[in-house]
UniProtKB/TrEMBL annotation:
UniProt entry tagged with the keyword Metal-binding: no
Entry membrane topology: Multi-pass membrane protein
Name of the protein: ABC-type lipoprotein release transport system permease subunit
Pfam families documented for this protein: FtsX
Native organism taxonomy: Bacteria, Bacillati, Actinomycetota, Actinomycetes, Pseudonocardiales
Residue intervals of the ABC3 transporter permease C-terminal domain: 43-143
Domain of life from the UniProt record: Bacteria
Main location: membrane
Sections of the chain in a coiled coil: none
Length: 148
């Protein structure tokens, strides 16, 4: 029985420094949100986390370009490639949000249910928004056969 391969599993994985550079700003933004910070700090950290997600996923799509072209050649649609990259971004956002929630609960002793739900949505939604342009570029990779 063959298992269908989803485009998210194509090509090289995100490196650990890139993953850390993506998760830490998201987690810091979640910590600021739960701690009740207001003002420009939260917006600045949110902007930095969006830029970090964008840079990480742009590099990832550039590294996976050849594999995405082969997937397109074997029948993956543009929508599947787009959804695969956004799914991976959502998982990164969820991991960063959980990291921030864990820090708030363990180190700071803070836990507010409403803030936690908002932080999770902000982490996942922010990562998806940050990876939207790289996912769009990945979906526009033309199908290509093997090179000689």
């Amino acid at each position: 029985m063959s298992v269908p391969v989803h485009p998210i599993h194509a090509g090289p994985r995100m490196s650990l420094p890139a993953l850390a550079g993506t998760l830490v700003p998201i987690a810091f933004c979640v910590v600021l949100t739960i701690a009740g910070s207001t003002g420009w700090w939260v917006l600045t950290v949110l902007l930095v986390s969006e830029i970090a997600v964008y840079q990480s996923f742009s590099a990832l799509v550039r590294r996976r370009r050849r594999d995405l072209a082969l997937l397109r050649c074997f029948g993956a649609s543009r929508g599947q490639v787009f959804a695969g990259v956004l799914t991976e971004a959502a998982w990164c956002g969820l991991a960063g949000a959980l990291l921030g929630l864990g820090f708030c609960m363990i180190a700071l002793g803070l836990y507010k249910f409403d803030s936690a739900i908002f932080a999770l949505l902000m982490g996942v939604g922010g990562a998806v928004v940050g990876a939207f342009v790289p996912a769009f570029r990945a979906s526009r990779v033309p199908p290509a056969g093997p090179r000689r």
